[in-house]
Amino acid sequence: MDPAKPSTNERRPQVSPAVNHEGRPLRRGFTTGATATAAAASAASALFGMGFVDPVTIRLPRGGGATFRLAESSEGVGWAMAAIVKDAGDDPDVTHGALVRVTLRPGAAGAGVTFRAGEGVGTVTKPGLQLAPGEPAINPVPRAMLAEAVGAVAGAAGAAPDVAVEIAIPGGEALALKTLNGRLGIVGGLSILGTTGIVIPFSCSSWIHSIHRGIDVARAEGLEHVAACTGSTSEAAVRRLYGLPDSALIDMGDFAGGTLKYLRRHPVPRLTLAGGFGKLVKLAQGHLDLHSGRSQVDLDALAATLEGMGAPGDFVARVPEAATAAGVLAEAEALGLPLADTVAERARAVAAEAAGPGVAVELVIFDRKGEVLARAPGR
Known about the structure:
single chain, 12 helices, disordered N terminus, CbiD-like, 2 domains, five-stranded mixed β-sheet
């Protein structure tokens, strides 16, 4: 699953249900890596003179197998091509329904399995990713899967596994505009991803993957200040505030924990964590997953905070029944109570603890217009 670009809400997974609206369990799908591997295995069989295999079954990285049907196949002198339609199950994957076309040709003697980016598959241009600049954006686990599958077919044919594997996703360059690949320095198309071969619906694993790779790129470029933001408004506001380059901007979304825990292991000197009041109230209350389906603002705790700040008793009594945290903030501001400042400092403390001592964490709360509501400096 390629990372969905989180600049518009319709591209964000909104909930993490176990079942669909009809009560049916959500169907798992397959990664681009698994899909490409299956196509390569079938094409390898044809390339080595044994004909296309359809349906074709492959072994998954963590055990078990998966079976795929071909959508296309063709061959000529010195090449064979097989294609499979990517099935992401019930996950809102940008590559769901895309055609993954794999063409195999004989490679140089002793070279083993090598990889090329075809139409719609990107090329790495920045350091810090799992692949060197200039390499096709076919990640390490899919490469290993492809090499194993092609090697097994070559072995069965009594041939050396010296094969050039070209992966194409027609229309992939346009699809990549809906991902974070451009910011990560992957140009020209999509990435071939997957660590298990399986897509778990609404797991958001590709989003977290893009967060981690964004941090890797920032570190490789020697950046000392990065910003992790919950959405496009806070990201634009941080950009205005500090003039940070794209490589320093991490689209954290709701995954504060996934961001901060990775930074603990791969620190940068300075982090600005930014977002709206409602999301960061949850962080201040100890939640590291800020999604509305997985954490809620504790209004009783917010009332207790206000009581400790000397808020009037009638206001404190109404807070547990408030419709939104933003509404509570508006009334607190009208009373001259620095609720946003208190939340910012508490959220900063939670984030700093999660990120560890190697990262100086600053917390900034923005309103819907991108204006600063509160700021807790890094330490």
